[in-house]
Amino acid sequence: MNHKEMARIMLDEIHKAGGIVSIIYKDFDTGSIPFQFAPDYAMPSGDMAKIAILLAALCRVQDGEMTLDKCVIVPDLWINYDSVAFERGEMSYSIDELLSWMIVANEDTAANALIEILGLHYINDCCRRFGLRNTHVECRLGQTRVPEEVRLNVTSARDMMIFFEGIYRNELFSRPLCEYAGRMFLRHRIHGGFTRYICDDIYTGRFVSDRDTVCNEAGIFYLRYVDYFLAIFNSDPAFTPESRQASQRMRGRLSNIIYNYYLEREDAIQNLPYK
Questions:
Q1: Structure confidence at residue 148 (pLDDT)
Q2: SS3 content of the chain, % helix, strand, coil (to 5)
Q3: Containing H/E element for 124?
Q4: Which of 48, 145, 149, 254 fits a 20 to 30 Å CA distance from 199?
Q5: In which domain, by residue range, is 187 found?
Q6: Please, which residues bridge with residue 23 across strands?
Q7: What are phi and psi of 52, to 5 degrees?
Q8: Do 74 and 141 lie in a common domain?
Q9: What pLDDT is attached to residue 150?
Q10: C-alpha span between 122 and 127 (Å, rounded)
């Protein structure tokens, strides 16, 4: 299978999907983008807003204005009613712990605590600073009601590629901070999309948002001879549990098409990116 055949199959999958779909796939070995579909379309970000928060937090650490071991109190007022990690009530947490809960376990309370610490203005300034043109964080996560004058959080598939490639190539921050972020995504606990139909023992550094009106996923596949990035966003106000599962299956099929393309080229034995 070549890239032209791959693109045809992927387009067929996209046309079968409901709602709005945005995709970008980049080969980090060659630097080419073999397939993209509306990659700059600003989509509701859902949990992907947490990546903008991570970017801003690491920016503050890089600039020497904050340390990862700095401790802050997370009061009861900041804790979401459905939080698991923070259900013990008001406690002290380090910035490192908040970032880990936010990315690894996808915790809204950790994200909202970091919003309080960093400020929305600073988070959005960092997005502009690093070229994430379609990414805006305008409200806390997990809110069921958003004031009409506040725009929903948005991002794009290409913006996520800029972030992930930046940490992959150690260009966004210092090498230790980029590797810190990369290891965090390797620990992300939510599965069911990109790796749904892949039984091989491979490493992926991914992040998933599967709730509300969005089914978004973005991350890096670390193979033996090549690494590549994939982002698939799917947004539909009419999502039901059944259509959400269909979106997860669609992400799995598209991801599997790309993965099988590399299997045809060479042995995709695991390659751990960080010591």
A1: 45
A2: 40, 20, 40
A3: helix 120-129
A4: 48
A5: 1-41+157-275
A6: 37, 232
A7: -65, -35
A8: yes
A9: 47
A10: 9
Spatial CB neighbours of 65, under 8 Å, sequence gap ≥ 6? none
Same domain, 151 and 167: no
Mean pLDDT by groups of 10 residues along the chain of 275 residues: 88 89 96 96 94 98 97 93 90 97 95 96 97 95 58 91 98 97 92 87 92 90 92 88 86 94 67 55
Tokens 């921050």 locate to 173
Q: What's the alpha-carbon Rg for the chain, to the nearest Å?
A: 18
pLDDT at residue 124 in the model: 97
Can you give the CATH number for the domain in which 69 is found?
3.40.710.10
β partners of residue 44: 154
Q: Helix 175-186 to helix 95-104 angle, to the nearest 10 degrees?
A: 40
Q: Provide the pLDDT for residue 55.
A: 98
The terminus-to-terminus CA distance of the chain in angstroms comes to: 34
**Cα distances (angstroms) measured from residue 28 to each of 25, 34, 89, 188, 221:** 10, 11, 43, 21, 10
pLDDT at residue 8, as a whole number: 93
**162 and 273 share one domain:** yes
With tokens 């809110």, the residue in question is 143
What per-residue confidence (pLDDT) applies to 149?
43
Count of C-beta atoms within a 10 Å radius of residue 189: 9
Domain count, the chain: 2
Q: How many CB atoms lie within 10 A of CB 40?
A: 13
Out of 155, 189, 222, a domain closes at: 155
Pair 176, 237 in one domain: yes
Locate tokens 């690491």: which residue? 58
- Say whether both 77 and 127 belong to one domain: yes
pLDDT at res. 151:
56
